[in-house]
């Protein structure tokens, strides 16, 4: 049996013990914890400590002598004294390639004030839809005083693929959406997880029936930003080994049980085969393709799929816990990474600026159920920052403002 995080994270083990994973052994908790009697439980090499205990000496596990706080109540105050360099405004203009904010005549002025304060130059709404709804969003932007500050991506209706008339209908709708002003195609995670073919079967991401859509994107010279699956932990058992336990406990609908959904690896392989089969189409893998916890896998993707780019939305916590390796990655692949945020919340953008621009150490992430660990700054060079923040987005998305940077 492999050692779990419980062995090496002694403090976290105390927290998790009270989170509902197990009930600590009463005997262990009641006085077998002192040094005099050499208490605790002995384990063999490679084994993990019993529930409710943590390793205190090599091969010896022990329970705390007092009730442990729950995983949500354990909030230790760090004693680290470190310099803090807050970055309220990005060093260079930023294109947010991944947002879902729909601007209206009512919220546009306030949004522009917030964007200016952040140095956020262009915000892309990936929830554009198609038809009249998309056209209305585009027209609202075009008629405003801020027509160069917002862009809209179109969406395709995947259900029914392979059925009579589906291809013709959706190809025509996407072509019209681009004519109406859409600058790209966004694919939501339902493709592969929940979308169905005309015959009712699961619509696989690499189904050949979808190729006409991707071929059209190549023809129209627009990028495809695709969100596939979710973090790998969402597909795994929700137990004390799962580092996303708290998030899945708060949002149980984010779990993908194996009896109802394809595996994480199945979805990754389908997506990557689709990328390879459409080499003339530019793809942006949302959320860093969910490879933000695996530098080597991210490298292999970019090395083998030259038509693929990665964007950083909602996975800042990954780069911030492995800053040296990711700094090397972002530098090596500086022409293949884009900035994205996902949820539009002005107070959260500065965390990205701080990770990317400073070398600060041991600071909080803005959402602790995503990451219970601390972040560290990457201190990216200016040339890399410019490409990450705006240059790559402008290069691969012709509908982006091309001047004034």
Using brief descriptors, characterize the structure shown.
alpha/beta; 405 residues; TIM Barrel; 2 domains; five-stranded parallel β-sheet; three-stranded antiparallel β-sheet; globular
Note the quaternary state here.
single chain
| C-alpha end-to-end distance | 55 Å
Describe the sheet with the most strands.
5 strands, parallel
Q: Identify low-pLDDT runs.
A: 1-37
Walkthrough of the structure:
With 405 residues, the chain is an alpha/beta fold. The protein has 2 domains: 5-62, no CATH class; 94-396, Alpha-Beta Barrel (TIM Barrel). It is built from 15 helices and 11 strands. It has helices spanning 5-8, 10-21, 26-29, 108-118, 131-142, 166-180, 190-193, 211-220, 245-250, 264-277, 295-304, 316-321, 323-332, 349-357, 382-396, and strands at residues 41-42, 54-57, 60-62, 94-99, 120-125, 150-152, 185-187, 224-226, 283-285, 308-311, 337-338. The protein has a 5-stranded parallel beta sheet. The chain has a 3-stranded antiparallel beta sheet with strand order 1-3-2. The termini are far apart. The model is unreliable at 1-37 (pLDDT under 50).
Question: What's a concise summary of this model?
Answer:
The protein is α/β, with parallel strands linked by helices. The protein has helices at residues 5-8, 10-21, 26-29, 108-118, 131-142, 166-180, 190-193, 211-220, 245-250, 264-277, 295-304, 316-321, 323-332, 349-357, 382-396, and strands at residues 41-42, 54-57, 60-62, 94-99, 120-125, 150-152, 185-187, 224-226, 283-285, 308-311, 337-338.
């Amino acid at each position: 049996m492999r050692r779990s995080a419980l062995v090496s994270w002694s403090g976290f083990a105390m927290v998790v013990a009270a989170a509902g994973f197990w009930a600590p052994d009463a005997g262990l908790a009641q006085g077998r914890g002192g040094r005099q009697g050499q208490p605790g439980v002995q384990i063999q090499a490679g084994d993990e400590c019993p529930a409710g205990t943590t390793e205190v000496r090599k091969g010896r596990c022990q329970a705390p002598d007092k009730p442990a706080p729950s995983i949500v109540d354990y909030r230790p105050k760090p004693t680290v004294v470190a310099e803090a360099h807050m970055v309220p405004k990005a060093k260079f203009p930023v294109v947010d390639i991944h947002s879902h904010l729909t601007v209206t005549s009512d919220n546009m002025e306030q949004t522009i004030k917030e964007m200016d304060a952040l140095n956020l130059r262009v915000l892309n709404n990936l929830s554009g839809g198609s038809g009249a709804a998309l056209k209305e969003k585009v027209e609202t932007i075009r008629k405003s005083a801020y027509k160069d500050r917002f862009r809209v991506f179109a969406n395709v209706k995947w259900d029914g693929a392979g059925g009579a008339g589906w291809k013709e209908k959706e190809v025509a709708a996407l072509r019209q959406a681009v004519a109406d002003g859409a600058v790209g195609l966004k694919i939501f995670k339902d493709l592969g997880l929940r979308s169905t073919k005309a015959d009712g079967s699961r619509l696989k991401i690499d189904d050949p029936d979808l190729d006409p859509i991707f071929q059209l994107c190549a023809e129209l010279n627009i990028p495809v930003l695709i969100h596939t699956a979710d973090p790998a932990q969402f597909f795994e058992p929700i137990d004390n080994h799962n580092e996303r336990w708290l998030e899945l406990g708060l949002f149980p609908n984010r779990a993908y049980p194996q009896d109802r959904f394809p595996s994480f690896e199945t979805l990754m392989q389908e997506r990557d085969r689709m990328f390879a089969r459409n080499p003339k189409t530019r793809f942006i893998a949302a959320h860093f393709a969910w490879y933000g916890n695996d530098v080597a896998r991210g490298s292999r993707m970019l090395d083998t799929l030259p038509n693929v780019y990665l964007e950083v939305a909602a996975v800042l916590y990954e780069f911030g816990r492995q800053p040296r390796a990711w700094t090397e990655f972002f530098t090596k692949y500086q022409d293949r990474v884009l900035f994205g945020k996902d949820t539009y919340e002005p107070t959260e953008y500065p965390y990205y600026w701080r990770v990317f621009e400073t070398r600060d150490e041991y600071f909080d992430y803005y959402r602790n159920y995503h990451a219970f660990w601390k972040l560290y700054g990457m201190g990216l060079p200016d040339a890399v920052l410019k490409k990450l923040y705006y240059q790559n987005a402008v290069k691969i998305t012709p509908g982006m403002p091309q001047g004034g940077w």
